Inverse folding.
């Protein structure tokens, strides 16, 4: 193919794309960002990710990688000289991967349940989300970030939560994160949103809000159809 | 590293996830104590070692627990790197491809197979799930061609990450076929995978671990009955 360099196929509404951008920027890697219109996907995207046809896709020297968490681990291994994202000790690495998976399975899916349900079922989803966050808080311990003093792999994987959960709270009119119940998660959210990289890469909140409202509308109308 | 190490694996003979961990340990020639958890019961040790999910497998290495099958497999590969063939490839790009397919297999493909296993008789969704499982196997057939590069396994000369991720499910695929009366494995459609499956099941590190399909069917029926009973309560 003869293509050199790093390209990232993405979309500003996708929190999964943001994960990859954080990883690239923490490592100081130069890349070309290709914006995808998800209602009209480019032939390149379909060629590079034929299985899922989704963003993000990282193309490094002409070779594509899909799945945000897989891409972030790839970035850590391919550019291993600077800013490690995962610990090198195998046990700590396994623990890191475990909590990243927990965030994906419990918190991400849980947040979708909160956004897409109504009434009693929604309240139940909120309660489960709070329990998941409480469990996750245990892993944070007294550290500023999950990665310690600096942002690491779990912070990157969980990094959608600070802004997205806030927006979900606003849309559904229910508070999910109470500072008294989740003091460490609340502090982490503040520190994460305060980080220069996060501030610089934050997508326009009104656009993301509109997108999330649309998701909720679509699910609710499908349910009553 | 090697030598006196306390290594326990909490698991069950029927769980494909547990089989993954055991294959990895076999590939590295590492001895361990296998503690069988009965169906429907959870030991004190399991609850203590995996308080988040309370599920098998759990590898306990010198008292420290590691959970989630593919995380355990990678851990074993890293700790006993020198002891046996590499389970994950050494090149970062090939590793990313291996991880991509492991995620696909677990997150997209297996839930469809599971649907077939636990479906009640004459469930309309079974036929659709079967079609999707077959379509997934087609994708995996193409992936096998690319990854194996003409060799015996996804991992090349020896059993690797994708082999372990997919191969552990093959007994259950056959069980699902009998339980639901659907054909999932078609030699015409997936000739490479069928050849691979035979080689995988007879590989030294694997052969004694794969349960008999009839036993899996029996076990599957019990799991299905318990799930359906719980759902109606």
């Amino acid at each position: 193919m003869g293509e050199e360099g790093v390209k990232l196929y993405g979309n500003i509404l996708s929190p999964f794309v943001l994960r990859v951008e954080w990883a690239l920027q923490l490592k100081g890697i130069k890349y070309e960002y290709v914006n995808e219109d998800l209602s009209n996907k480019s032939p390149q995207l379909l060629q590079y990710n034929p299985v899922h046809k989704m963003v993000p896709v990282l193309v490094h020297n002409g070779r594509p990688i899909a799945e945000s968490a897989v891409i972030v681990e790839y970035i850590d291994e391919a550019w291993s000289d600077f800013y490690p994202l995962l610990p090198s000790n195998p046990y700590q690495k396994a623990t890191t991967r475990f909590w990243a998976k927990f965030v994906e399975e419990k918190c991400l899916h849980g947040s979708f349940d909160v956004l897409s349900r109504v009434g009693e079922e929604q309240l139940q989803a909120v309660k489960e989300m709070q329990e998941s966050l409480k469990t996750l808080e245990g892993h944070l311990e007294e550290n500023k970030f999950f990665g310690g003093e600096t942002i690491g792999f779990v912070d990157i994987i969980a990094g959608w939560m600070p802004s997205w959960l806030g927006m979900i709270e606003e849309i559904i009119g229910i508070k999910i994160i109470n500072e008294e119940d989740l003091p460490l998660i609340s502090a982490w959210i503040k520190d994460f949103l305060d980080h220069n990289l996060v501030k610089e890469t934050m997508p326009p909140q009104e656009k993301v809000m509109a997108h999330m409202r649309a998701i909720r509308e679509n699910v609710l109308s499908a349910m009553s159809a | 590293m090697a030598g006196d190490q306390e290594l326990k694996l909490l698991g069950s003979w029927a769980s494909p996830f547990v089989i993954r961990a055991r294959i990895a340990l076999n590939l590295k020639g590492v001895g361990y104590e296998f503690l069988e958890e009965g169906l429907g019961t959870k030991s004190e040790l399991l609850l203590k070692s995996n308080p988040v999910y309370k599920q098998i497998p759990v590898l306990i290495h010198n008292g420290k627990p590691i959970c989630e099958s593919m995380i355990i497999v990678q851990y074993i590969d890293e700790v006993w790197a020198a002891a046996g063939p590499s389970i994950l490839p050494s090149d970062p790009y090939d590793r990313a491809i291996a991880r991509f397919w492991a995620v696909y297999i677990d997150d997209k493909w297996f839930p469809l197979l599971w649907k077939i296993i636990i479906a009640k008789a004459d469930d309309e969704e079974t036929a659709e799930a079967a079609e999707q499982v077959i379509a997934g196997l087609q994708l995996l057939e193409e992936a096998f061609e690319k990854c194996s590069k003409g060799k015996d396994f996804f991992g090349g000369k020896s059993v690797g990450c994708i082999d372990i991720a997919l191969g552990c499910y093959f007994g259950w695929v056959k069980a699902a076929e009998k339980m639901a009366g659907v054909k999932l494995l078609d030699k015409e459609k997936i000739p490479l995978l069928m050849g691979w499956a035979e080689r995988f099941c007879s590989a030294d590190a694997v052969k004694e671990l794969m349960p008999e399909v009839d036993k899996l069917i029996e076990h599957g029926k019990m799991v299905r009955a318990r799930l359906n009973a719980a759902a109606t309560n």
